[in-house]
Amino acid sequence: MSKLKIDTIAAVSTPAGRSAISLIRVSGPETFKILSKLFKTGGKKAFPLPYSAYFGAIVEPDTGLVADKCLVTTFLAPKSYTGEDLAEVSTHGNPVVVSRVMQLLLKNGARAAEAGEFTRRAFLHGKMDLLEVEAVSQLLSAGTASQARLALNQLDGLPSKFVARIRDRLIHNLVQLEASLNFPEDAVEAIDEHLLAIEIKHILAELHVFARNARNGNLVADGLRIALLGRPNSGKSSLMNYMLGRERAIVTDIAGTTRDTLEEAMMIGDFPVKIIDTAGMRRPGDRIEAMGIERTGQAVDSAFAIVGVFDGSQPVSSEDILVLDRIKSSQKPFILVCNKTDLPQRLEESFFSGCPTVEISSLKASGLPQLVKTLREIISSSGLSELEEMVLLGAQQSVSLDKALAALERADQGIGTMYQDMLAIDLEEAVRELGRVNGETVDVNTLDLIFERFCIGK
Ligand SMILES: Nc1nc2c(ncn2[C@@H]2O[C@H](COP(=O)(O)OP(=O)(O)OP(=O)(O)O)[C@@H](O)[C@H]2O)c(=O)[nH]1
Ligand SMILES: [Mg+2]
Questions:
Q1: What is the CATH number of the domain that holds 109?
Q2: 17-42: pLDDT as tens digits
Q3: Mean pLDDT for the stretch of residues 208-229
Q4: Nearest to 163 by CA among 123, 185, 194, 132
């Protein structure tokens, strides 16, 4: 089906099942023609007026039977979510009633909407750009208040304005460069490469900040990954259970109990995190353990921060030294846990020297507040509590932003030595890729990928 054909679509926008009210959305040029056939309102108010609510009944045209009594809210193009004529029909929240009203709409000229099609139309009609689309998507899937706040910030449009402004500046410079390249003999002034170089540097600096805000935003949206790392039996799974407050991971006194990485969400302050329990690090006993330990390595690579778990009741082993080396070489923020403090302590204190350490007994449930406090400090010192600054990007948008940055880096480094037409190619690429970030130059296939993540009715 052609995505460009603008017909009239309908979908149930509320979840399936019984509820007080269900909402059916209808959008497109025939919206009010279709509703005029089906919806009978008793009042004298003309139908439809902008932003108006009408109480009435959906009536089957052939039989005159009432399908439901409902409230219809009207939004006239272009002042609606989609930018088209749009109506929201609030029916009684019974699946039988809802499906009857839907069938009547479909029989009388509407088409069942695809996932994300209302938002896609909003995008096509210029009601929002791709950054705002991404914010809507993240708002719908947000699992915590801070994730929702981040998405709402982005819906205010500041990141959109930023990308549009940077892109306009690049276009302006590109046009000047092209003019001086194509019409050298005309009155067009030769471009001042020195000024252009300064401008590119400024833009690059601003874009780097934007990219960092986007990385942080995606960290918050996905949940910061915190990996528990340690030798077998040090108490990683016990600590995970203690942090979560429930028996999630299997704990035994057999070294090598955890063979695969386990991931669970929790909050640190008002920050969503994912705690990752890993297979204990040692020379593997069999193939399965070897695979588990390989995954431990991946968990370290993808982690935002690492919690090193050590058994305080045992002297330092070669495995502990291996673990500490791995943690230090990861260059990630970390904290060391001296676990099993309920037992006589035999781990040499000097082992932890110079490293942030907390003492914990996972068995007796003591010491967690100090660990949480330190993790909060790690999060806030990474600038991650500044939600206002953050940006949410989809996977495609992140790739495009990186490409735009790379093209500008090439331009920045090459300017003065590189041919101007090569410079123009890099600037063009930056403009094109930034257009993919905000949707100015996005292609249909990419749009398909973006909107298929949405639910029907949004
Ligand atoms: N006394 C005491 N025992 C603990 C504590 N934490 C864990 N243990 C015990 O240590 C043993 C190993 O605990 P686990 O949590 O399975 O250790 P692990 O690091 O996940 O081990 P692997 O999955 O094999 O890598 C179990 O018998 C736990 O009951 C603690 O704080 N105090
Ligand atoms: Mg374990």
A1: 3.30.1360.120
A2: 999 999 999 999 999 999 999 999 98
A3: 92
A4: 132
Q: Which of 251, 293, 307, 366 to mutate to test the pocket of ligand 1 (most atoms within 8 A of CB)?
A: 251
Q: What is the 3-state secondary structure (H, E, C) of 102-158?
A: HHHHHHCCCEECCECHHHHHHHHCCCCCHHHHHHHHHHHHCCCHHHHHHHHHHHCCH
Structural contact between residues 71 and 90, judged by C-beta atoms closer than 8 angstroms:
yes
Residue 222: band (very low, low, confident or very high) from pLDDT cuts 50, 70, 90: confident
| Contact 368 CB / ligand 1 (< 6 Å) | no
Is residue 204 assigned to a domain? yes
Q: Distance from the CA of 310 to the center of ligand 1, in angstroms? A: 10
Angle at alpha carbon of residue 299, lines to 296 and 303, rounded to 5°: 145
Give 255: exposed, middle or buried? Use CB within 10 Å, 0-12, 13-18, 19+: middle
Same domain, 83 and 110: yes
pLDDT digits (tens, 9 = 90+) for 144-174: 888 898 999 999 999 999 999 999 999 999 9
Two tokens, residue 121: 């139309």
Q: Does any domain span residue 173?
A: yes
**Residue from 234, 238, 242, 296 whose mutation best tests the ligand 1 pocket (most atoms within 8 A of CB):** 238
Are residues 371 and 229 located together in one domain of the fold? yes
CA–centroid distance, 320 to ligand 1, in Å, is: 15
**Whole-structure pTM value:** 0.76
The pLDDT of 330-337, averaged and rounded, is 96
DSSP H or E segment with residue 412: helix 395-414
Q: What SS3 state is found at 174?
A: helix
Residue 235 Cα, ligand 2 centroid: separation in angstroms? 7
Q: Which atom of ligand 1 is nearest to the CA of 277?
A: 20
Please tell me if the CB atom of residue 241 comes closer than 6 angstroms to any atom of ligand 1.
no
- Enclosing domain of residue 32: 9-128
Instruction: Name the band, by pLDDT with cuts 50, 70 and 90, for residue 187.
Output: low
